[in-house]
Queue: 4 jobs
Job 1
Amino acid sequence: TRAASRRPFGRLQILPWVIAVSALAWSLSMRLEMASYNHELVARQVAIVEGRATTPRGHPSAGHDCEPCPRCVQGSMASELKAIDATPDPRAVTFVLVATMNANNGPRVAALLASVQKYVEKDRSAVHTLLAVVPDAELRWWELAASALGDQPAFKIGVLAESAALRSGVEALKRAAPKTGRRETRGLGYRFQMLLKLGVAEHVPTDFYVTFDCDVVLARPLHLGDLVRKDENGALKGVTQGSMGGPHAHRWLSSSLDSFFGTTPGSAQQKGGVNGAHDCRVSNLMHTVGVTPAVMSKHGAIATLKRLEQRAEEEGKRGWDEYLFSALEDGLDWTEYGLYAAGTCLDGSFNRHHVVDPKVRLYDAALQEDGSKFMDPKVMNEAFGPNPFVVVQSIGGSDATSVADALYSHLGNSAVEATR
């Protein structure tokens, strides 16, 4: 057995991240504590529905129609982060991680956090807040993990309950799309994540945010101006991927555009929404945003949700999210980025919020679409450097253990040597 090298403690910068991920990974084994907490959550929700409870601010709650209070580490609520002065530099962004804890995601979170630790500059940080959006039942575990990270000099850390980012409750959404839940191989959790990446907009403290899944890592040092720029007039603009690739992109965008006009395929064409004042044809939407990770305007996302909320009222639905789930039942295969692209096109705000630079890509689309390529060292070496992010998707064929091996040479800390 080789003894682990002993380096000065100050050099072990990765240790807090390892501790955090260990706390997350072991959360599944702590069933007794979690069962007790789940019981507490259920009891509280029942009390709210029956009118026997109030929110911490003293406002009566009426179940799903009233937004539950999210919680945040460091003694403040996540929803209050937006009230804090974001940063001396408005180009800083919020990293939004939509995640749930399972055997596949835990190790991937370790890689993501290691990349943030390595590539986010401590001075003049391009990141203001790292905000994790998680299931309500996992909230305390993620809070513990965030606490284990300690005080970060480069950015704030927040944890937000999923229910705070949705207009309707999770169970109501499931009831709105029973056929879809049976039809989709990945279940409705995949769709919930899409909704959360839009719904979180009201909770981010910066003008722009970047959406993350657990299979995204930073690929190089991140500087102010890489993700959000100022144009010649001083206006802030988020940098986009500039294209949405893959064999399903046309269907996703077409369905997303239709969602603003009805719940069935072809609604936009039938109601004259395609060739309007801003020419929102799918062929044009294809050259706007990509997929995760994406730089999104908080104001653009909120405006998109307001437009969908109006549509929901016309259809007699409780909220924008329930409306979208009901549209799944009628055959609309929308996505969060399709909705964002269509919504910001319809109100003419996309070019006001974003810039498409043909010289810049946020990630390697070929690697993102084919997870099997991550095992090729040449491909990985080429992926780390030119683009800000690398995506190693589990649905593309990667597994967590192999991904860790492939990423270690790029993200590992030389101050930490394992005992073998």
Job 2
Amino acid sequence: MAQQPPPTYVFTGDRRRIEPYVYAYTMHCKGRWCGRRPDEVFGTEFKMNPPAYYEEALRDGRITVNDALWDGQSTLQQGDVIRHLAHRHEPPVPKGPIRVVGLTENALAVDKPPGLPMHPCGSYHHNTLTSLLREDFTTRSFVCADGVDWAEAQRAARQGLRQVHRLDRLTSGLVIFARSASAARTLCEDIGQGRTQKTYIARVRGCFPDDAPVLRPEKRPRNAELADGSWRIDGDWVEVSCSLRTASHRDGVCECAPDAEDAKAARTKFRLVRKLSDGTSIVECRPQTGRTHQIRLHLQFLNHPIANDPCYGGELGFAGSSLVDDAPP
């Protein structure tokens, strides 16, 4: 396949855009696709276009299987490579600049703004944090905090950084990248073994935790195992244990599914920081495991969804997301 040309960035107002371009998506057959026709897979799992578009693309060769035109009958098998040649229009993201807040011989840390995806996924490819670090580490896109050497940060970004954790697109916060394979292994082990602590701040609906469900409150001793699908209060903290699973691969959403065989165990601790006069609350969140959308789902489980999270019960518009409030903490 020919190498993709570099992106052309366009800045309008506070948004970064990319001129539309032709792109070859390359995918390896996933286990759940085996034995299914490619037109059925695309029609049910990819929502960027209607099913009729994918059917036509398979017929005219814009979508190929193992670099060959699909015969209209065969099903996908393990090891198959699917390519989709498409005219790509990426959604805009915040203009930036993105702030580099830390740099050591092993890692680089940035303050990720909300609205910027971590890595290529879905409709995004160049308009992502990892791509911008690699392709556009310039003064229009990045700024260094006091004490961070610009030339060394730029060199680290261009030599290649390794992602060791992620934040959702709409989430802002600290992201750490490793500068070498050995540093990435160490950081991943630290995260996986619980030697690090991630802390998030969320604005949730209601006066936390007054709306938490009463059907299955957990009243076991502090050192007892917390049952799946339950919660308990431990001092200032609310602990939740509820397994999660993917609800829709096509839509990229998950769901709470306690005791389900295909769900993965998940645990989170929450602490009230402040109640606001508009009926929302500021909550500190500490995930004990690292499942997709874990904090968002566990807050939904407690009937206190993130206030502006439309996927999981939030109703507050983004225009009303200011934390300015005259109520006492």
Job 3
Amino acid sequence: LSESIIGTMSPLFSSVVFSDIDGTLVHYLKHMKVSGSVVEVHPSNFSYVPGSSSAEDRADGGQMAPLEPSSQPPSAVEAAAGSETSYREETSGAVPLEALPPSSTGLVGYVPASLKDDVNALKDSCGARFVLVSGARWPTVRGRADALPRAEAYVSEGGGRIFYRNEDNEWTEDLQWRRVHGSDDEAQDPPVLREPLRQLAAQLREHGVTIDDKSYETMFRVPNGIDQWPVDLPPGVSVTTNLGHTDVSLETAGKGNATRYLMEQFGVPRSAACCLCDDDNDLPMMREVGIAFVVQCTSESVAALCRESASSSTNTSNDGRICCVAMPEGGPAGTVAAVASAKRWLASAAVGAS
């Protein structure tokens, strides 16, 4: 990190929370209904009510229900006042939502209305940095920045590019991280897909595979996933899944590599780092931190890890084992619970380190 960037960071910072965006902080109606949620949408009033997790409810998407002011969940600060032995805090009742600006594809996402306040409370009480980590292209991440909690670093393209924002709201890309991928130049505008990804994308298109590589540099996406590869993957490429899509990226990128890099730059050990997540493409990030708070299990592999972790006596990740805790509420209520849980875990970690 440049000295100018480090200089804007408070010396009180001693820990870090990495957070995925889609499926973790930002939720979509189709995904909330699939998970059995009950959702009501009004022009200026959005609410989420955790639904049953039964197969029947997942199939029909639940029923509509009004937002009752008296049923609003406690804030993260109030929820964090629970027992001293549990890091996971349950949330019940309706969670007021705020709509985000539409994405480049027209999709509208929703976040808990208390999200910014809850994350700020976490940062203030625990002296934590907050890092947003997304598989989205940089223009999308930048376009959403004002609607999300302010972060000390913004990671786009699933770990391929890292940006910082100073107090004057000026953006700077981490050129040292670009050099890790073999580039000594600043990104072109619009960005151009790098090799060997560019050639692989062209080959897949020749076989009729739909490719989304617009404004991507270190990865591209296969919408709705790919069951069988018609060509061999070249060396230096890795594949992950994200909410049903297939992400193809440079091996030097990835959420795990970016997480490890930033922890080294910040000087934060694994024991003082956690993440908020939900899907397969978050697994590399989950391996790098002390504990992962899973807002909702959107893949069977993540669900299996949560079940394994629940039966283990280990409360931090080590020796390749991932320690993770699932939020049974899911959806926006799971987001609120995960932020509160991260706050409690970091407070406990700080006490243990003193």
Job 4
Amino acid sequence: MDFEAALVDTATTVMPVQSKHLGVENNRNIQKEVLRPKRKRLILLFATLFAIYWTSDIWLTLIDTFNLYAAGDDIYNFINLEKLQIQIGNTPVEIPRIIHRMWPNDEFLKQDNLEITSSFNRCIDLYRKRSESWTTVLWTDHSIREWLQTHYPQFISTFDAYPYQIQRVDAARYFILYHYGGVYMDMDIGCYRTKDIGDLVDYMEASGKLVALPQTDPVGLSNDVMFASKNSTFFREAIDALPTKNRWFGIHYLTVLYSTGSLF
């Protein structure tokens, strides 16, 4: 009997302890269940705020682009000579007769059998025959960086920080057109006897237009062909904005597009 009594006494003393531990555990589980939705809401809130911050530049850039479109062909977009009437501007405008081209290096000039070489030389010969005032400048990756280091050293840190070479090339176009003015043409854009960019340059000067860029489809302004006077406000604002746009936009294509490309 004493042994049985001892068993009963042990059971009665242990059971309340077990019940207490179970109660604590249950309270913890309840707290976790209450806190879990709060954590999810906080995570969702932070994710939403980050998405808004991350996409803000994209939407603001699109708005700016549409504003340029709303301004019409008469301001920044590529000029259609057949649709516009020339109006003489109050301020004389001069578009330097310089064609800027870019390539990683100048090795192709030593090989006459390359298509890129014949296309490059054809442009030089064509505009040399039309007017001796036209000059062609070939910019390479090396000469671009050296030139920027000399004339715009404050931009070198941003220039070197770009993750992609095409961003450096894009940025250099804006600096060069601001500094020298003239015409920038991608190397894959050929020169033809039936199409003379000199006509557009003459029109821009006569009508007081400082900058001309072609539209891209469905949205944006292309930078594969650009016309500009020296020290234009348009490209001054462009190069000033470059450091603020140097950020990651999720993928390679969007990063280039919004940091230095056609939606920059």
